[in-house]
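Input structure tokens:
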């Protein structure tokens, strides 16, 4: 069957590609990053002997104000390991209904951890403390034991929504004071740091880190790295995570060539995310002028979601594709565009002009 009314069906880019806005995972390593990778000292990381992996782990831990970190092949793996370490089979995890850990990790919470999920109905992925508290089960044998609260910052399905520091801190205190673990899916935490002006203020980042028991940070989104995510937490947490990673088959040998890309990205590719955010605002403005667009969700970082007048996402994606603009159906009546390292200002300006020529059903 064709992808009609599909959620998350990625189409290949068109032959006349102008700009690939399907995802911030489509970036390629820059030449400089390739050089850094090729020059990286390496060793067997399963033996704990890869200096580049160790450097990336210790830099991430220090930056976040935590004791330890673990380099893994993907953000799905860092999230799933964290969930496995924080829960026992039969426990319950609280998260927003838009969260990646629930929607896009292959049912991993049930599959890997045997845990159930309590979904909250927040504002674009951000929920308030009262809703969180009222969904913690009483400690009574009739109920699943609530053991973990997870948040996503920025929230992908929330259109790149950024958590407010005070709200996050309130939820963190409430959850942790009740003995629950608090996990961050920070696949795009770098974007959130830049939006909140924290990247230039390392103290602010470690204060943010203090809100969490564990943090998953991706390098393969928007930063140009080919592969890799880092899980951050206490010594004890990371020791358990290590066992979990092994059991999931995520131990890698000379992974230093990948870690070197992450180190390069930390130094060169985080501050520039501000450019991606600016590009996203330009797209928002252009889309707001389009007659067949019903509305554009407020842009907060590098993700733009626009809504259609009917279930025409596939037609809209096809029409934009004809103009050389590759994007992504994000539901029957929603389209997502994501800006990233490989989108240049000239391409973006041209895309904003060509957008106006794309047509799809107006109602
Ligand atoms: C991409 C993403 C992940 C992890 O994805 P991988 O492809 O497994 O690295 C996790 N959370 C969010 C919010 C994401 O967007």
């Amino acid at each position: 069957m064709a992808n009609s009314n599909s959620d998350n069906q990625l189409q290949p880019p068109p032959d006349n590609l102008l700009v690939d806005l399907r995802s911030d995972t489509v970036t390629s390593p820059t030449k400089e990053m390739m050089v850094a990778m090729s020059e990286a000292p390496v060793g067997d990381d399963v033996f704990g002997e890869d200096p580049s992996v160790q450097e990336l782990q210790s830099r991430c831990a220090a930056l976040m104000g935590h004791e330890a970190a673990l380099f893994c092949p993907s953000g799905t793996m860092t999230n799933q390991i964290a969930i496995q370490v924080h829960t026992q089979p039969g426990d319950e995890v609280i998260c927003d209904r838009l969260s990646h850990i629930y929607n896009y990790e292959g049912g991993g919470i049930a599959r890997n951890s045997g845990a159930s999920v309590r979904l909250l109905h927040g504002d674009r992925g951000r929920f308030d403390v009262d809703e969180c508290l009222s969904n913690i089960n009483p400690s009574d044998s009739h109920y699943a034991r609530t053991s973990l609260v997870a948040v996503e910052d920025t929230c992908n399905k929330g259109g790149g929504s950024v958590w407010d520091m005070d709200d996050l801190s309130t939820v963190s205190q409430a959850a942790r004071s009740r003995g629950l673990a608090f996990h961050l899916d920070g696949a795009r935490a770098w974007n959130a740091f830049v939006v909140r002006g924290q990247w230039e203020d390392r103290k602010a980042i470690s204060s943010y880190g203090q809100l969490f028991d564990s943090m998953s940070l991706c390098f393969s989104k928007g930063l140009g790295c080919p592969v890799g995510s880092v899980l951050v937490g206490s010594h004890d947490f990371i020791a358990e995570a290590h066992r979990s990673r092994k059991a999931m088959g995520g131990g890698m040998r000379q992974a230093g060539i990948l870690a070197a890309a992450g180190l390069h990205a930390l130094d060169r590719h985080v501050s520039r995310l501000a450019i991606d955010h600016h590009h996203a605002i330009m797209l928002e403005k252009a889309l707001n002028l389009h007659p067949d667009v019903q509305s554009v969700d407020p842009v907060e970082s590098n993700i733009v979601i626009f809504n259609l007048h009917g279930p025409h996402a596939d037609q809209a994606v096809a029409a934009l594709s004809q103009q050389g603009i590759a994007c992504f159906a994000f539901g029957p009546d929603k389209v997502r565009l994501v800006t990233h390292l490989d989108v240049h200002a000239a391409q973006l300006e041209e895309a904003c002009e060509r957008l106006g020529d794309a047509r799809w059903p107006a109602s």
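Residues 273-288 form the longest helix (16 residues). DSSP finds 14 helices and 14 strands in the chain.
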